[in-house]
Design a protein that fits this description.
single chain; globular; 3 domains; alpha/beta; Rossmann fold; about 40% helix; six-stranded parallel β-sheet
Amino acid sequence: MRHLVFALARRIDTQLAIWAPPGELPVTTTSVTSFAEAAWLKRLMSEGGISHLIRNGGIRALLAPARLLCMIAAAYRRDPTADMYHINWLQCALPLPRDKKPALITVLGNDLKLLKLPFIKQLLRRKIRQRRTVICPNADWMRLPLQKAFGDIAEIIPVSFGIDPRWYTITQNTDTPPRHRWIAVTRLTADKLGPLFEWSQEIFRNTKRELHLFGPMQEDVSVPEWVYYHGAASPNQLATEWFPGAAGLISLSRHAEGRPQVMLEAMAAGLPIVASQMPAHESFIENGVTGILCDSPASYTAALHQLEDVETRLRIGKAAREWAVREVGTWDDCAQRYTTIYKKLLGNKHIE
């Protein structure tokens, strides 16, 4: 979201007021986050975020979402001069005021789980029908379920997030390494990891391959001793130390994905992806062309062997980068996509 905020702030036709956790903001933007809210949000982020808190259960899993929604409701009232709302994630639309101002709502795959909770869809429909609304999932596969839920009262327009230009400049190592180094970047939960350890054990343990795992531990997951677990990694570490020369990025997730940002960044870097065969991955990975999809231990093993051939790895990585340039672009391209929708909602006026 920081990349998106800075990209929107670079535009001369948009003026932003931001409610968000504390962090660096462009000089041209205004923060509408109070000191107390910023302190609470900072503490929430240090604990892994609202989703992590809910997964852990307990009284705070009930109280924290309610408090967050109350804060967002106050933020909506705090800047009466705003022309419209750009809302990230469906739940943040629940406290929208009755002011009839247009809204653009972004949606991730995980947001669709929210619609299965009692009364949530009805509450969202009540808010959406009060205003002109465009709902923007970050992947096309979400269009159909959102169309079924809200298509009669809102327009559904998929909008892909952007990619920082630095990823497009990464040069892949063309040498055959003595040991093939594979990487997985994910939050450590059972759904996000999927069968990674189960399928990888035979092909990685005691072989000339290394599986390097990055990401925060968000569930009680036991990492096998043959896996190189590094904890969370910064984008700079991945870009400079790990993406160049890796055999590929692995994601065997079973989680409700949109378009995972790290996978888009890997494609921009020319790093091939081996991914579980699921609708989210199929929506942006062309099997055998821009990556390899697998649905069994045998197809997974075959994919690793295929990409350990340098010529194949470079060919698929090149096709992945070309797709990322053509279909995703940069965060400035993403800001242009959103601004086009702002103008549609507002009738081409200057946007605040």
